[in-house]
Amino acid sequence: MSALPIRRLPDPVLKRPTRPVEQVDARVRRFVHALIQTMRHHPRCVGLAAPQVGSPLRIAVMDASAHPKARLSHGLLVLINPRVTVAEGAVVQREGCLSIPDLTANVRRGRRICLSALDQAGCPYELWLENFEAIVAQHEVDHLDGLLFLDRVANLGTDVFPRKTYL
Ligand SMILES: [Zn+2]
């Protein structure tokens, strides 16, 4: 399967909140598979949300394990109808996004979160995530709420940077 095309800012689909998945059926699972393939297609891509490929569904995938900033990771996670139910502490880290290829920014997020979601079998799970992996999950859940990392930047004048090369 080939990778799906990535929507970029200012595509309006990126700013639209998604709708919950009512039933995790074969169609949803095929879409999850396509999202994973697309994420894997882009080196160093650690997460991808449905709006980034033009879908209105509340689905994202992530895999922080290959990234040098991830010391601890649960590997591949499928997030269907995800919610962050607890966020503790705060951490500021540089973030990037396939949908905003020319910029990175310092973004403040919860350092430790409890994530509640369905997996691709439709089974509910709850997971505590920390540091880099928690940041990735919050970034992806934001996409599903129609928010981009630029919406989280405290000071657009000092916290946003041009990206020299996108690897
Ligand atoms: Zn993103």
Could you list some keywords that capture this structure?
167 residues; alpha+beta; Peptide Deformylase; three-stranded antiparallel sheet; 2 helices; 33% strand
Describe the structure.
- By secondary structure, the chain is α+β, with helices and mostly antiparallel strands.
- It has a single domain (about 10-160), classed as Peptide Deformylase (Alpha-Beta Complex).
- Helix content is about 20%, strand content about 35%.
- The protein is built from 2 helices and 8 strands; from the N terminus they run H-E-E-E-E-E-E-E-H-E.
- A 5-stranded antiparallel sheet has the order 1-2-3-6-7.
- It is globular and about 45 Å long.
- The model has no long low-confidence stretch (mean pLDDT about 95).
- Zinc ion (ZN) binds near residues 97, 99 and 143.
Bound molecules: zinc ion
What is the H level of CATH, i.e. the homologous superfamily?
Peptide deformylase
- What is the helix/strand order? HEEEEEEEHE
Biggest beta sheet summary: 5 strands, antiparallel
Beta-strand content estimate: 25-35%
Count of helical segments? 2
Query: What does the average pLDDT come to?
Result: 95
Structural class: alpha+beta
In total, the number of strands is 8
Task: Give the termini distance in whole angstroms.
Answer: 22 Å
Order of strands, widest sheet: 1-2-3-6-7
CATH fold category name: Peptide Deformylase
Shape label: globular
CATH secondary-structure class? Alpha Beta
Radius of gyration: 15 Å
Q: pLDDT below 50 for ≥5 consecutive residues: which ranges?
A: none
